[in-house]
C-alpha cells in the first residue's frame, strides 16, 4: 500500500512583522497561552495566513524574544507569513479587534527581509520596587562596580549559574521618579544585552541581592519598554524601522 503524501502548501507571498503589548493582568499570560490566543485571533480576523506543509498544517507564525511570564511589555514581536498580499494597516485593525484588551497590537509593517530574531539584540526594562531609593541607589553602585554577579535560575536544562552583570549595558535609578522615593517605591531603568542564557530583569534583581544584599520587596513590577538592535550609544533601536 502506497502511503499518502502530505499536502504541500504554497510558499508565502508576503510577510508582516507585528509589535504587540502585554498589559495589566494579561502580563501573566504564558507564551503558550498567548500563541493559542493569537492563532484564534488570526482565524476570527480572517487573516489570509500561509500554512505549513505536512499532515498537520498550522499557520506560519514566528515568535521572537518573548518576555517572561509575569512581566508586562510594550515591545513583543512576531512575524506572519501570508498567502495573499494585504494592507498592513488593515491587519493591524483586524487583529486588535480580535484580541482581548491587554493584548494590544501596536504596529504592523511589511517585513524588510532577514531574521527578525537577529534584530533583537537587547531590551530596555523599567523595574518598580517597593524599596526606598537610597538603598537601591547604593546597591546599584555596588553592582556596577562589581566584576561579576553570579546568580542561579532553573532552566530547561536544569539549574544554571551565570553572570547577570555581564549582560547589563546600563542600570540606573530614574531621577524623576525613583530618586524621590514616593510612597517608598523606586524605579530602575536597565538595558540588557541578549545572550545565552538570556539574562532577565529578575536575574538583575537577584544580582543586586547577591552583590549588595538588597531586599527587593514584594512583587516587583517589570515592564519591557523596547526591544531591538543595540546601538553604539547603548540605546535600543526599533527593529521595525526601515533599514538602508
Describe the structure.
22% of the residues lie in helices and 30% in strands. The protein has 244 residues and is of the alpha+beta class. Helix 4 packs across helix 5. The relative contact order is 0.18. Residues 178-182 have low confidence and may be disordered.
Task: Give a quick set of tags describing it.
single chain, 244 residues, alpha+beta, 8-stranded mixed β-sheet, two-stranded antiparallel sheet, 5 helices, 22% helix
Write the layout of secondary structure elements.
Blueprint: E1 14-22, H1 31-44, E2 61-64, E3 72-82, H2 88-98, E4 103-110, H3 116-119, E5 122-129, H4 133-145, E6 150-155, E7 158-163, E8 168-173, E9 186-193, H5 201-212, E10 221-228
Parallel strand pairs: 3-10
Antiparallel strand pairs: 1-3, 1-4, 2-3, 5-9, 5-10, 6-7, 8-9
Low-confidence stretches: 178-182
Q: Over all CA atoms, what is the radius of gyration?
A: 21 Å
| Number of alpha- plus pi-helical segments | 5
Find the count of extended strands (DSSP E, 2+ residues).
10
Bulk shape: elongated
* Chain oligomer state: single chain
What structural category do the secondary elements indicate? alpha+beta
Q: What is the helical fraction, as a range of percent?
A: 10-25%
Give the N-to-C terminal Cα separation: 55 Å
Report on the biggest sheet.
8 strands, mixed
Give the amount of beta strand, in percent: 25-35%
- Average pLDDT figure: 90
Order of helices and strands: EHEEHEHEHEEEEHE
Amino acid at each position: 500500500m502506497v502511503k499518502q503524501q502530505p499536502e504541500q502548501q504554497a510558499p508565502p507571498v508576503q510577510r508582516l512583522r507585528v509589535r504587540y503589548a502585554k498589559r495589566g493582568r494579561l502580563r501573566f499570560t504564558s507564551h503558550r497561552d498567548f500563541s493559542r490566543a493569537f492563532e484564534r485571533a488570526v482565524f476570527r480576523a480572517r487573516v489570509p495566513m500561509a500554512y505549513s506543509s505536512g499532515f498537520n498544517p498550522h499557520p506560519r507564525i514566528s515568535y521572537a524574544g518573548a518576555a517572561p511570564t509575569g512581566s508586562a511589555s510594550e515591545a513583543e514581536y512576531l512575524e506572519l507569513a501570508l498567502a495573499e498580499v494585504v494592507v498592513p494597516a488593515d491587519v493591524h485593525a483586524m487583529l486588535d479587534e480580535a484580541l482581548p484588551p491587554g493584548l494590544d497590537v501596536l504596529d504592523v509593517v511589511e517585513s524588510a527581509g532577514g531574521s527578525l530574531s537577529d534584530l533583537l539584540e537587547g531590551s530596555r526594562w523599567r523595574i518598580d520596587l517597593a524599596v526606598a531609593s537610597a538603598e537601591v541607589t547604593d546597591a546599584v553602585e555596588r553592582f556596577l562596580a562589581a566584576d561579576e554577579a553570579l546568580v542561579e535560575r532553573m532552566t530547561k536544562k536544569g539549574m544554571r549559574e551565570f553572570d547577570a552583570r555581564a549582560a547589563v549595558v546600563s542600570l540606573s535609578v530614574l531621577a524623576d521618579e525613583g530618586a524621590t522615593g514616593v510612597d517608598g517605591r523606586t524605579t530602575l531603568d536597565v538595558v540588557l544585552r541578549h545572550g545565552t542564557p538570556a539574562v532577565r530583569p529578575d536575574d538583575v534583581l537577584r544580582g543586586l541581592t547577591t552583590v549588595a544584599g538588597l531586599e527587593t520587596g514584594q512583587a516587583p513590577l517589570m515592564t519591557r519598554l523596547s526591544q531591538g538592535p543595540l546601538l553604539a550609544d547603548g540605546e535600543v533601536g526599533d527593529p521595525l524601522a526601515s533599514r538602508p
